[in-house]
Every structure is written in structure tokens, then in C-alpha cells.
Amino acid sequence: MSAGWFRRRLLPGGPLPAPRPPGPRASPVPYRRPRFLRGSVSGPSAADASRCRDVRPVRSPARGRVLPWNAGYAEIINAEKSEFNEDQAACGQLSIRRSDFATEEDEEWLTLCPVEFLTGHYWALFDGHGGPTAAILAANTLHSCLRRQLEAVVEGVVATQPPMNLSGRCVCPSDPQFVEEKGIRTEDVVIGALESAFQECDEVIGRELEASGQVGGCTALVAVSLQGKLYVANAGDSRAILVRRDEVRPLSSEFTPETERQRIQQLAFFYPELLAGEFTRLEFPRRLKGDDLGQKVLFRDHHMNGWSYKYVEKSDLKYPLIHGQGRQARLLGTLAVSRGLGDHQLRVLDTNIQLKPFLLSVPQVTVLDVDQLKPQEEDVVVMATDGLWDVLSNEQVARLVRRFLPANREDPHRFSELAQMLIHSTQETEDGPMGEGQVSYDDISVFVIPLYSRDRGSSGH
Amino acid sequence: MSAGWFRRRLLPGGPLPAPRPPGPRASPVPYRRPRFLRGSVSGPSAADASRCRDVRPVRSPARGRVLPWNAGYAEIINAEKSEFNEDQAACGQLSIRRSDFATEEDEEWLTLCPVEFLTGHYWALFDGHGGPTAAILAANTLHSCLRRQLEAVVEGVVATQPPMNLSGRCVCPSDPQFVEEKGIRTEDVVIGALESAFQECDEVIGRELEASGQVGGCTALVAVSLQGKLYVANAGDSRAILVRRDEVRPLSSEFTPETERQRIQQLAFFYPELLAGEFTRLEFPRRLKGDDLGQKVLFRDHHMNGWSYKYVEKSDLKYPLIHGQGRQARLLGTLAVSRGLGDHQLRVLDTNIQLKPFLLSVPQVTVLDVDQLKPQEEDVVVMATDGLWDVLSNEQVARLVRRFLPANREDPHRFSELAQMLIHSTQETEDGPMGEGQVSYDDISVFVIPLYSRDRGSSGH
């Protein structure tokens, strides 16, 4: 759960609930949207991607369970399988048709570039808020959107360099249509497809929510392995990191009202009507009181990275557009994330002020050149929802990874066990392996993706 | 000159012009603005900051000349002192009054916190376009704006941590008004003052240009040494780097239509009327032709980092909002930079389409903690206008610095000589020290700021 209205799901130090069998296919169960989206809501209880022809679904992934998908390396653990778990996940193989020939003229190209499927792998974590509905819809939908978007530009993806013009023919490196000038790379087209897929999925979710009279939103963190590269697309506050023997590298950054302050303030500057006179665009170190009127206090506006002082006017006493800090920071007093899917109908409590105009569905995409990385046997990518990162730093996770994997080299389920161990370590008291006594009260989902392939001594795709 | 309409000032490989004596005080000479701002214009010929009470002016700095300011280490060289040089510079000591007491009640604080001046040092490079007027105005004005902005918040600057409330009294660390929560640091208030100073200066320039019927704009790169830190504020395409024995660190980044594509496209998305139906917001790999109508071509919109494909419509054939790449990229076909001062009246040739709404005067500020750095004797900051960086990479400049300084350890003017040598090396042919045969045709100005102080073995302030 990214939004902070109700985070306590696991009791500190208590045992993890036992894995539950997969439930029936999730069809959105009607429930009434609470005006301030607090607490749990009734609804579907687990991820279900059974409709997806191109993704082998993770059905209600239970902790420690090895997933039945053929690449065989990715593992998933969901920490907290309560009835109202808002974390959802999906993973599987992506199959993208390389060509879509319609005209007779194109037939001749078939012999040169036979129709085939470009295959990749897909892992996704969705952290819902205001109920699990949006997260379930995203887990059921996003991979299909991505497949569709990739198929629409596949000639650009399979070419050495994307052609300026998609002629409907298979494009080979000697094609004069190649665009040298801008240095546009194949990966730029995959990034574009991921960006478009997130937006398309957001539109689908909006329609589905409206049709079923439901509400909610979710963050989305997606990793796609394609042609020797790993693409990590993030919209929200989940996180992916690369852990190697000598390196810890963030593969995503978080999008919250704090990290996107300037974008959000700027929007309110351009369209002040979005605040309906109820909020102030300016940031102050704390909520101002009547006593502050006329005082000269610290503030920041949209164009500022630094802080300055201003004399407090009456309008500055309004509730701030972004308020609180760290895990408590809220957009319009309501939402803890600034990017994600859904939330089309989300409004500030007891007002008609919409959140959606301030939210972006477009992800930030990072590209990891796995082939170039020459991965070693214990190099992994760890993807997890915010509950993990609330209590474990990147370095702490890396230490746990580096301690666990070499000690369990012969265990065929060791990546799964590692994901489980990471979640366990967020439930530790002072006696735990980190000795920090930090406890997470949030749902947590973790993927551990090994990059090494025994066959090639390289990326495991 | 940042904008690319007329760059050839120095003949390749030719000798540098001899230094000229300082001219009379620059009072803006009226000249007619050419509609497309091509070629040189008549106007004042050299920087003149003689009006500044708080900055000891650099008067028409000639190459190799040691500057008469008391810190004694900063050196300046302007490469090309043609009559219409658009590069301008200023440097000197900043004196900021620590307190400004008005009421009797405050008098008691004077004994605790005596009135004194907080002193710093200031270096600034301005690279004009459309004539030197804006650059001269900036060189004459910006330091005063900065002093004023710093004095307005000086209690926040001298405090260990800036207080939430400026009470008009001198604030000591035990003051209950300190804002712990947000972790706002003294340097954030200096950054805020720099941001405000650039904006104030831009307004002053706008008024002066309007009053005198003149035009033009300039980039601005400023370094301020204050309380053991070096603040580098940049609006435009000049650059500052730190060069140490084992490190080269960029202290600024460039703001051009290419680097700020998403911000500029987004503005056009919010306010399409700014394009007056004459330009397309979308980016394509090349200018589209009638033949492309109906084709599926690569494009990017404001929300995209990647590239996608779209079917070309008639409106896509319009001239692109941002066109060209690298040094040739232009905003609205006119301007090569996206941040800077001035340009209030700049319009697209033969239209009423304004450039100014797309330009930001606010700089990006980087902070270098010089005290913490424990600088060595040959650690320097190199600031230069784009002409230098067009032909020399950061690493190449660093190699020249590391070769030159140890070999000239006894020369009291070695930083000045180094700045001169850097400019010379942009005029070399194949036989030059870099052996790369690159030649800059642009005005070039360079500051070399040594960080080491013999007295303290630390920062030289």
C-alpha cells in the first residue's frame, strides 16, 4: 500500500500468515468507496492473470513458492496474503509478433525476415491504495498493453537502429530510411512502448473502474527482459536495485509528492483552478497558523530548489498542496504517491477537488545492458514494494543478498528463499540479522531476478 | 555567444588580438534590433561594473591580465576582444550586511550579534546574443541583486540552521524558532537567494532594455564563495568544472532546447496558443515533408523519454518547436539556449510569436563544500563560456590543467596564464598540444579559481 491511510497489516514481529491457495478468478467485487479511502475495503483478494495469453500468470503467489514459468529464475513472494492485500504481481513470458504483413507485395520479405515471435520476460509489482481493484486490473492488463505497444513498433525494436518510417515492411540495416542524425536507439523505442503501455493501461483501468462503479489506484513497477537488456519502468514508490558482488545500483527512483514537488506546484501555478481556492501552492516548513500572519517565513515555490522568505498573507494559511514529509508527505492531504495507475475518480474528502490531474501514469524507464554487464552467478535484481524499503536500505538488502546466495548455492529455490528471507527480515526485532529492530507494517512483495545464465555465462533470457 | 546565429569571430589558427585598454563606461548605445538577430550589432564593447559598490569590477579584462581584487587568486581571460564581443564578465568581493536593525527593541541584540559584513567572492560570465547589451547589463547588475537578496535573508544565512521565522532579530542556535523538521540548511537559503537574484536581474534587464529601446539576451554562469562553500549557479550553456589530481567533476549542466525539451514541449501542451498555429510541439528525427503524410514515423511528445511511432498528419508538417541537434538545436527556430537573462522582446522572425515564455531565468545551483574537500594546491574550478567546451572536453581541460600548474608552480600569475593557455588551445591546429585540430570560432571567456589557500591549507576565501 503506497498511500498512507492505513498501513498496519502485519503485527510487529509476528509470524507471517500461512500461504493460502489461489482464490477464484478475481472479478471486481463491488464495494463502496470511502470518501477518504481509509482502512481496508472488501474486494478481490489476490492477483489473477489467467486471461493473459502472453503471460503465464502468477496466481496468488504465496511466499516461498517457486513459479511455474519456463525461464525458471524469477521468484516472487508476497509478504502478506490477508484477505484485502493490496499488493499484486504478475510475471511471465512476453511473446511479440515480429511482423504483421497484410499486402501481397510484402510477401517477398517473408523469406528474408520470417514471421517469428520476439520473446522477453516480464515481472510486475502493483501496490494498490483505496482497495486492491486497480492493482488487480493492472496485473491483469498491463502486460497485454505492453505486448500491443511493442507489436505496433516491433520493426523498430528488431532493427539495428529504428527506422524513421515504418513502411510495413521488414526493415534491414541497409534500409535507406534509417535515421542516423538523432542517434535514436532500439532501446528508445522499447522505452516509448513502455511509456505508452502504462498510459494505455491507465485508460483501461479508468474505463473499468467507471463501468463497475469502483475506485482505487496503484503504483506499478515493471521489469522487462528483451534482447539482452533489462528495462525497469517505475510509476510510484516501489523500487528495483541491481546487486552485484561489488556494486549496488538503483534501477528506479521513487515518485512521491516530495520528489515531484516542482512538477506538481508548477501545474497548480498554470491551473490555479485545480486547487479550487482551498489549498495553497506554496511549500512551508510547517503548516502556518493565524499567529504567523505578517511574519517573514521560509517558503518554496515551483521554480525554486532553494528556500526563501516571504511575508505571510492570509492565503498562505490554506492547507498546502503538498504537506508532510518523508513517508507522511501527502498530495492534497490525500495521496502518498504522485505517479501510478487508476485514481480517476479520487477526490479530496468532502470536496470536488480531483487528484488525477496531478498524477502521471507515465513511468521513468531505466535500461540495464545485461549482456554488457557480463553477470556473475550471484548478480540479481531485487524488485520490491515500498514496505521493504521503508525498513531496509539498498545497502542492507545487498548485504543480505551477498550473505544468502553463496551459502545456498545448491538450493534450486534459493532465489525464492532469498525473497522470503528479505521479507522475514522486515519482521525482525533487535535480535534479527540486521540487528536494527526495524519492523514493516506494510504489505510487501519482492521479486529476485537472477541475471546469470549457466548456459551462456551471461544474461539468463 | 550562445545563440548560434553568428559565431565566427576568431580566424582559425590566427593570433589572438592584442589586449585593448578599457573603454569608456558602457552606456547602452542605441542600435536597431535585427529581426532574426544575425551578425554583429553596434553597442558597448566591454564589461564595465564601475557602478558596483560591492564588486570590484573587471574592466574589459584583457587576456593574461591579473585582476586587482584582494583575494588575488581568481583570474580572467576573455579570448576575443573584438569591438562587438558578446562575452562579459564580472568578479569581486561581495559584502553582505549581517543585520538591518530598525527598532529600538532590537538594539540589545547588537551587543550579542554585532553588525558586521559577511564577505564572499563572486565570479560571473555572461554570454550575450543579439548584441552585448543584456550581457553588459547583467555584468553591471547581477551582483547587486545577489547582495540585496542575500541581505534580505542574511539571518538565515548566518544561522547554523535557517529559522522558520525571520523575526528581525539576530537569531542564535538556541532560538526556538528553528525548523528541525524539514532539514532546511543554510545553503538552501543561499540557493534561494541566487535563484531570486537571477530573476530580479532579469526583470531589471527587461526594464532597461525597454526603456532604451534595445534588445538581446545572455546566459549567466555565477560562482559565489561564501562560508566555506562554492555555489555555482548556471542559466544557459556555459559550464563550470572542478579539476583535482584524481577527479573531474561537472559543477553545472547546460540548458538548451534539447536538454529542456520536455519542459518546453509541456508548456506548449498547456498553452498551445504560444505557438500561434505556426509550429508543431512534437519532435521528429528530421523535418517532415509532404511525402511523409500518412506514413508512420518516429516522434516524441512532452511526456516521453523514449520514442514512438505515429501516422503523420498535416499539422505535423509545421516547423518544429525545437529543431536541429547539438549546437544547431534551436527553440522556435531562433534561440540556442533555453535559460538566461533578457530576450524580453525577442520574437520569431516576421511573426508575433514570443520566445520569452519558453525561457527560464532561474538558474540551477550546485554547491561545492570546499572546506570538506580539503583542497590541494592545484585544485581549481574552471568556468568558461560555451566556446571553450565546444572544442575541449572536461577531461581534455583537466589534462591541460594538470600539465600546466605543476610546471608553473612559482609563477604568481599561473592561474591567469592557465586561463590564457586554455583559450589558446582552442585555436590550435593539428600541431597543438591536444593534437585534435579543433578550433573554436566563438568568443571565449575563462575563469580559473584556485581552491587552495596557503594560509589555511584549505579553501582560499
Beta content of chain A: 15-25%
Report the uncertain regions of chain A: 1-82, 168-179, 457-461
Q: Could you tell me which chain pair has the largest interface and how many residues each side has?
A: A-B, 47 and 47 residues
Could you give the order of the helices and strands of chain A?
EEHEHHEHEEEEHEEEEEEEEHEHHHEEE
Give the assembly state of these chains.
homodimer
Q: What is the helical fraction of chain A, as a range of percent?
A: 10-25%
Q: How many angstroms separate the termini of chain A?
A: 31 Å
In total, the number of strands of chain A is 20
Number of helices of chain A: 9
Structural class of chain A: alpha+beta
Categorize the overall geometry of chain A.
Answer: globular
Alpha-carbon Rg of chain A, integer: 23 Å
Q: Please, could you describe this protein's structure?
A:
Two copies of one chain form a homodimer. Chain A is α+β, with helices and mostly antiparallel strands. In chain A, 23% of the residues lie in helices and 20% in strands. Chain A has nine helices and 20 strands. Chain A has helices at residues 107-112, 133-152, 154-158, 186-212, 261-270, 370-373, 386-391, 394-407, 414-425, and strands spanning 75-78, 87-97, 117-129, 165-166, 217-226, 229-235, 239-243, 248-250, 279-280, 296-299, 308-311, 319-320, 322-323, 330-331, 341-342, 364-369, 380-384, 445-450, 452-453, 458-459. In chain A, strands 2, 3, 5, 6, 15 and 16 form a six-stranded antiparallel beta sheet that branches. In chain A, a hairpin with a 4-residue loop joins strand 7 and strand 8 (248-250). In chain A, helix 2 (133-152) packs antiparallel against helix 4 and helix 8 packs across helix 9. The longest helix of chain A is centred in the middle third of the chain and has 27 residues, at 186-212. Chain A starts with 74 loop residues before the first strand and ends with a strand. In chain A, 52% of the residues are buried. Chains A and B meet through strand 4, helix 4 and strand 10 of A and strand 4, helix 4 and strand 10 of B.
